[in-house]
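Hi F.,

I've been meaning to write this up properly since the lab meeting, where we talked about keeping a consistent format for the predictions we share between groups. The idea is simple: the sequence comes first, exactly as it goes in, then the structure tokens exactly as they come out, then a line or two of notes. No screenshots and no reformatting. I'm using this chain as the first example so we have something concrete to point to.
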Amino acid sequence: MFGFTGKLLHIDLTTTVRSTKKLDETVARHYLGGGGLGAKILSSMNWEVNPLGIENRLVFATGPLTGIPSPLCSRYTVCA
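Output, unedited:
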């Protein structure tokens, strides 16, 4: 999958329960990078939720340029 491990880690911060889900390869190809994948995850949520409520999502995602020695590349993307 060229840079993706093919997994999504979901952590519920209220109960500290962790679960791993398989990332669909077509989603990884259509939404390039951590920002694109974070936007895809956030697009499926209900926009009526409380911004500070437990239903809201906070996405940390790495992109295809993570780990290269360049001063302009970030290590991860945060989407909220």
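Notes:
Residues 9 and 20 are 5 Å apart (CA to CA).
The chain has a mean pLDDT of 84.

If this format works for you, I'll send the rest the same way.

G.
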